[in-house]
Amino acid sequence: MTLLWRDSWLKPLSDFDVGADKCGYCKKAFRKIDFVTACDFCDKGIMHDACANKHILSAHKKQLEAKINLHKDKPLHDFQ
Ligand SMILES: [Zn+2]
Ligand SMILES: [Zn+2]
User: Fold this and answer.
1) What is the CA angle 19-22-24, rounded to 5?
2) Where in the sequence is the domain holding 30, given as residue range(s)?
3) N or C end of the chain: which has fewer CB within 10 A?
4) Between the ranges 11-25, 43-57, 63-77, where is the mean pLDDT highest?
5) What is the pLDDT of residue 77?
6) Domain-embedded: residue 80
7) Is 15 part of a structural domain of the chain?
8) Within-domain flag for 1
């Protein structure tokens, strides 16, 4: 099993940071409050957190595995 750690703190993005009012994956408009993130591997834009997970797993499986292997030997809580 491999678990991937995301930044756990919540940071409100400005409209400028977001640059879109809908998800880059499912194309649904964001709600008033939504959990979003960006892809680590391409500039697809802001996506729902769950959508980004699906996108990364389907579009970047190889890159994801490479990244996992790259960090395998490091301790769990090594924040770069
Ligand atoms: Zn979405
Ligand atoms: Zn991507």
Assistant:
1) 85
2) 20-71
3) N
4) 43-57
5) 64
6) no
7) no
8) no
